[in-house]
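In response to the reviewer comment on reproducibility (Comment 2.3), we provide here a single inverse folding case reported in full, input and output, so that an independent group could reproduce the run without further information from us. The structure tokens appear first.
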């Protein structure tokens, strides 16, 4: 057992260790500091375990753009729906995406109207569907960060190996490190430190954040998702800020290495190349997306179908964009718990299991 960023053993919920970390945080947090947890899983864990109540009033936790469904741009959602409206297509997707509202409808509503939209548990399930339905094109909706991108890349390579001509991916993947600089540069928010995502960092490794840190010197700590993991990450950030010694710190050493998962990164590099991507709430970030390489173009739904979608504004009053960059909390959205509820969501932050609005609705009294 330790609190130095290495191992906790089996003591993820050790009360004595938690109290020690809280004392450390309170000892360091002698000045106001705004910390952003980038990952949506962190947001949920922080609420679920009551971590905000343990922190001193000098620490403000901001929820960032770490929910992949939430940051998917409105135009991309409308493009997914337009594909679902085709008779020659089977849409496959993870469940969270079903209920995300487009401008006029959603995948769930289109499914109720007869569109062939199917929830799958992996992109490989979509490949198997393509094998079983040669008369239709199976489109997998590729939404997510570096955590899910390797599995979708592997599915594309499997489809290539099988010689499938009726499988493709509508790729809306985004990468985390490139978004950090956009957040730091945004004048609408002030971020004193980043609690960086554990799952993504397992894949990309600590070295993937080097360019950002060397340029901006913003305190950073990668953290896991157990209560003590999160407290350790917050303690690291508070120490860095108070001592004026920013660092890129690994507080999840039992899972995250400097290099990350070399095989997963190699699969991603074989299938994808960087591209500009639009983020809900942020706008276009250069090089922050993943596009399917030209040599695999037959598996790219955007190239195959060329669906034109008119850019539309988000729903009137919806503050999801500002919530995703930490400029507002759900409590400051005029629609929260009124027009926008989990049963009838207006914006994606209320839909996703990692959405900030969903976390506030469930856990904030």
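Designed residues, in position order:
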């Amino acid at each position: 057992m330790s609190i130095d960023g290495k191992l906790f053993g089996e003591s993820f919920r050790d009360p004595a260790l938690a109290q020690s970390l809280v004392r450390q945080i309170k000892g360091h947090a002698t000045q106001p500091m705004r910390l952003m947890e980038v990952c949506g899983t962190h947001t949920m864990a922080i609420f679920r375990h009551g971590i905000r109540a343990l922190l001193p009033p000098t620490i403000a936790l901001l929820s960032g753009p770490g929910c992949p469904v939430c940051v998917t741009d409105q135009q991309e959602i409308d493009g997914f729906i337009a594909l679902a409206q085709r008779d020659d297509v089977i849409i496959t997707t993870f469940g969270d995406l079903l209920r995300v509202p487009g401008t006029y409808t959603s995948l769930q509503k289109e499914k109720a109207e007869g569109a062939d939209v199917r929830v799958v548990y992996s992109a490989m399930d979509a490949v198997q569907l393509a094998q079983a339905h040669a008369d239709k094109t199976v489109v997998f909706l590729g939404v997510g960060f570096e955590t899910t991108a390797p599995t979708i890349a592997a599915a594309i390579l499997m489809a290539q190996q099988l010689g499938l001509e009726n499988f493709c991916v509508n790729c809306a993947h985004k990468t985390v490190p490139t978004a950090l600089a956009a957040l730091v540069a945004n004048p609408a928010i002030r971020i004193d430190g980043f609690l960086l995502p554990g799952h993504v960092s397992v894949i990309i490794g600590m070295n993937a954040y080097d360019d950002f840190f060397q340029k901006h010197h913003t305190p950073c700590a990668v953290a896991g998702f157990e209560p003590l993991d999160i407290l350790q990450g917050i303690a690291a950030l508070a120490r860095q800020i108070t001592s004026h010694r920013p660092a890129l710190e690994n507080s999840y050493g039992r899972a995250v290495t400097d290099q990350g998962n070399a095989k997963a990164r190699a699969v991603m590099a074989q299938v994808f190349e960087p591209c500009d991507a639009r983020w809900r709430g942020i706008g276009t970030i250069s090089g922050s997306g993943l596009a399917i390489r030209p040599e695999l173009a037959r598996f790219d739904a955007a190239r195959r179908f060329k669906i034109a979608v008119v850019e539309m504004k988000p729903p009137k009053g919806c503050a999801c964009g500002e919530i995703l960059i930490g400029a507002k909390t759900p409590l400051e959205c005029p629609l929260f718990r009124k027009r926008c509820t989990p049963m009838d969501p207006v914006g994606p932050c209320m839909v996703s299991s990692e959405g900030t609005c969903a976390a506030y609705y469930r856990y904030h009294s």
